Amino acid sequence: MKNYKHLFFDLDHTLWDFDKNTSEAMEEIYKIFNFSKWSFFTFSDLMKIFYEVNNFLWDKFNNGLIDGLELRNNRFIMILKKLGVNENEIPKGIGEKYLEVAPAKHYVIPFTYEILDYLKPNYQLHILSNGFEDVQHRKLEASKIHHYFNTIVTSDSSGHRKPHKGIFEFAMKEAGATRDNTIMIGDNLETDIMGAQNASIDQIYFNPNRILHNSKVTFEVHSLQQLMNIL
Predict the structure, then answer these.
(1) CA 17 vs CA 91, 109, 140, 151: distances in Å
(2) Which of 1, 55, 92, 201 is deepest in the core (most CB within 10 A)?
(3) Nearest residue to 24 via CA among 203, 7, 32
(4) Would you say domain 18-104 falls under CATH 2.60.120.650?
């Protein structure tokens, strides 16, 4: 096994519990903007369409087809229009409020604190995320894990997005790391795993839902606790 020194973690869905935090944030949005006045959809409908639209937009963003501003500005317009709301009835400021509320949520994936405590004495830990710079820093602060990481690299700070190898090369340069002593840990086969492969970096695929796939990965875990068996 290689002598790893630098561990690069994805943030959303890998350490920061995106689903739990988003659900709680959306409950607040639902109340703040009185979505119940639109009786033709439920909170459950809202969450279903939120994930559909959000995943669609982030896929376009990751592939360089839209920029961050377009993602932020259009997300809730698209969601509510898909739910049947007339565009001229959509309140202003929903997107801004969501980006205020959601990153302030603190829930993390099970064993996050335990594994970071375990790894910190022996490795340099880093964040490598496609998320927006300001948002990701607030998530790290809210969940009280910011202090574990030596460097935090985002698509904003690097000028590239996973799976482009440029973001990995930028991150290694920032960290003073090399391909031989670096490993990427993330939940997304395309952005995290294939991206690391593009940059000739080893990978740990975090696959808590045990999604079936045919990708060749260096390691695969279903719980963060299993990192102790590898590192």
Answers:
(1) 28, 5, 11, 20
(2) 201
(3) 32
(4) no
Closest CA to 85 of 34, 9, 156: 34
pLDDT per residue as tens, the chain (231 positions): 689 999 999 999 999 999 999 999 999 999 999 999 999 999 999 999 999 999 999 999 988 899 888 998 899 999 999 999 999 999 999 999 999 999 999 999 999 999 999 999 999 999 999 988 999 999 999 999 999 999 999 998 988 999 999 999 999 999 999 999 999 999 999 999 999 999 999 999 999 999 999 999 999 999 999 999 999
What is the CATH code for 6-17+108-229? 3.40.50.1000
